[in-house]
Design a protein that fits this description.
Blueprint: H1 4-14, E1 19-20, H2 23-26, E2 43-45, H3 50-63, E3 67-70, E4 87-90, E5 97-101, E6 106-109, H4 115-123, E7 127-128, H5 141-147, H6 154-157, E8 164-170, E9 176-180, H7 192-196, E10 205-212, E11 214-215, E12 219-227, H8 230-242, E13 249-254, H9 255-265, E14 275-283, H10 285-301, E15 306-309, H11 313-324, H12 326-331, E16 336-339, H13 349-362, E17 366-372, E18 377-384, H14 389-408, H15 424-431, H16 433-446
Parallel strand pairs: 2-4, 3-4
Antiparallel strand pairs: 1-2, 5-6, 6-10, 7-11, 8-9, 8-10, 12-14, 12-15, 13-14, 13-17, 16-18, 17-18
Bound molecules: flavin-adenine dinucleotide (FAD).
Amino acid sequence: MLKESFVAELADIVGDSHIRRAEGDLVPYARDATPLFSRRPDVVVFPGSAAEIAEILKLATRERVPVVPRGAGSNLCAATVPLSGGVVMVLTRLNRILEISPDELLAVCQPGVSTAELGSAAAAHGLLYAPDPGSRTVSTVGGNIATCAGGLRGLKYGVTRNYVLGLEVVLPTGEIIRTGGRLWKDVAGYDLTRLITGSEGTLGVITECTVALLPMPATTRTGVAYFTTLADAGRAVAEVIRAGIVPATLEFLDQTCINAVEDFAGLGLDRTAGALLLFGDDGPAEQAAASVTRIAEICDRMGATGYTLAREVAESEELLAARRCALPALARRGPMTILEDATVPRPRLAEMVARIDEIAARHDLVIGTFGHAGDGNLHPTCVLHPTDEAAIARAHQAFGEIFSTAIALGGTITGEHGVGAAKLPYLREQLGEEHLALLRRIKTAFDPAGILNPGKLGS
Ligand SMILES: Cc1cc2nc3c(=O)[nH]c(=O)nc-3n(C[C@H](O)[C@H](O)[C@H](O)COP(=O)(O)OP(=O)(O)OC[C@H]3O[C@@H](n4cnc5c(N)ncnc54)[C@H](O)[C@@H]3O)c2cc1C
């Protein structure tokens, strides 16, 4: 239980209208997009400035009260579940785009701006904000930076960290620091911008983001190829890269996902296919068209059972929608989906998919797999019932085996969703004790009282 005097001081900082304590108001902040994890906070605050955040964190450090920063709460690793109660700090009031600079190819925004909103603001100036998570209409730029979100354009454009130039960050002890800035070249000091990117709200609260933009590609072209097995699709991916093509999009769905998407969206996909490869490229019209045509030819040569190329932008968008709706489509198959995020070196993709299928069958589970074939990032997704405790236990066992397999194949337990509370038990196997001990020392340097998002990274 929080002391009344603590809550009164919080209310003084943010104002009575920006604090919630009623039981019903706390419920939505007990969870994020991760099933099986929930814990109600004691209080939720909605600060309106870095100065208020600094005051809150000073107070929390003094009183040893946990604080969990939260953007849209769309993460898939229980990163915003307040495991020890305390304060959930929601950053969505900090929602202003402060600057789009076509001269410097950058944007400055507050952390609560949605990814899609920043993308649209950049597009209005003929510029591209490249990070493109499937959740972009809801996720925030601050949340994307704190998780180093990836997305559908990762192969060609990289992930969020490749675009973060500078941050304003409030430390748990209340100091406000700036890391990096507007420069593409700046090696003064340790690279704290990179350290805070992906730190999952455990080192500081991001209050301003300076991100790089690119000239908007003239056009995007997309195509889809079908294969008998995902292993065949994996071999085609390897061949595309070997041919020197680095397309903007190279995504796959397995048969379970194809059928789920078709039931959900009725896009006319080939339900008989064992796997689907969605490919796309952007750039000047002729170049983008030539690129997708070459990819289609390679798929054909590598045994595709069929392919189609989108004739116009609207058709391209429909194909991309097939990939984007994979999770909601699978979610309709059962009341609960556990979506995971293992990643392996690209040449091991087909092997990893085969291992996932074998593990799912052995544990008698429905696991559909989709993901970013271009960067070896798979999202095995288990569909089950929340009251079926035996199946949930089998799913935990199965995912443990999937993560161990990913590590054994030279991969990682998370390519883009983060560690949060959900993956923490598996981190030691990947990083080892000495590495974990260093993470803990870094965490202590930033957060000596251990108040910021406890029970997650650095714990
Ligand atoms: C349908 C769906 C599709 C998705 N697709 C993708 C995808 O393609 N790629 C991908 O990478 N992820 C994807 N995700 C996961 C999720 O959207 C990302 O992790 C996203 O970056 C989270 O942003 P958020 O604003 O919701 O952050 P939250 O979930 O609120 O928070 C995530 C983490 O960031 C911290 N945090 C948030 N804001 C701040 C801040 N201002 N300062 C410090 N720490 C902060 C939190 O403490 C937490 O640790 C998807 C999720 C869903 C539901």
